[in-house]
């Protein structure tokens, strides 16, 4: 292909989801380079893209030195998406200024330094984009993990959600965590110093229940009447349920006006429900993304500050 308008990086195993999302938006993938989907048209927001290259250009590679110089002439910070020609790509990378990609210590903020991305398409041809949507190398958000505190690994996707949004619950704020068992998300909220009302039909880990600010109601999240609940700063949901059922629940909370901010996991069993995803995306102020810690699911977020 002569021109690339945008390149979208799919997470492993979610290439077909990205392809379908782009197809629905009128974008055709001209070719795949590993998990990077190249299209001729300008970039669009894509939930199934971990990282979107928004200004890709082909650069001919003479020698290792000239390749590195060409990138350095554009800007300082570059990250490699390595698929083919690994040895040659590593030599070019070594000739570039080092980019620190240390795991984050949550709630540390995402890096703010400008980062581009490049890859070797052929030994003599690179694709490079000075701009991309994720400040992380290949959209992968790495954290210094806590192997003792949280009772499940689900806390990582909540950490990633808050990190990507650049905002999280603050001390004094009230959160409702729907589908909270065994308590990874509730643990995150309590550690941030916010109040957490955890709702699940199943009991939570006793260590989490004992944390300051945590209260529990053992019942179904679908039985709640939002109008009768207190105002919450954050409505969080990691409930296992059909996406359409979650959409109904979120809409009921919005109609009641009882939550300022939302962060919910839309989980898919079997095929991805692209129609319901589109309905979530149509909510004013909605953000939809498949985070690097998400499984077959996407995160829906809606922040008070984004509401038009
Ligand atoms: C993936 S787990 C949540 C993990 C949790 N976020 C964590 O960090 O440990 C999904 C939870 O949804 C709960 N769930 C399913 N249906 C529910 C309902 N109607 N109301 C409340 N919780 C429900 C399940 O009991 C299960 O604990």
The helix fraction, in percent, is 10-25%
- The gyration radius over C-alpha positions equals 21 Å
Strand line-up across the major sheet: 11-10-9-12-13-15-14
- Alpha-beta classification: alpha/beta
Query: Number of helix segments?
Result: 8
Largest sheet: 7 strands, mixed
* Quaternary assembly: single chain
Uncertain regions spanning at least 5 consecutive residues: none
Ligand roster:
S-adenosylmethionine
Shape descriptor = elongated
Mean pLDDT: 97
Q: Terminal Cα separation, in Å?
A: 39 Å
Strand content: 25-35%
Summarize the structure in words.
This protein has 308 residues and is of the alpha/beta class. 24% of the residues lie in helices and 25% in strands. The chain has helices at 15-24, 64-74, 86-94, 155-165, 184-191, 206-209, 243-256, 274-281; strands at 6-10, 29-33, 36-39, 49-53, 56-60, 78-80, 116-122, 125-129, 174-178, 195-199, 214-217, 232-237, 259-267, 286-289, 297-302. The protein has a 7-stranded mixed beta sheet with strand order 11-10-9-12-13-15-14, sandwiched between helices. The chain has a 4-stranded antiparallel beta sheet with strand order 2-3-1-4, with helices on one face. A 4-stranded mixed beta sheet has the order 5-8-7-6. The structure holds S-adenosylmethionine (SAM). Residues 152, 154-155, 178-185, 199-202, 220-222, 238-241 line the site of S-adenosylmethionine (SAM). The site of S-adenosylmethionine has 22 residues, from α5.
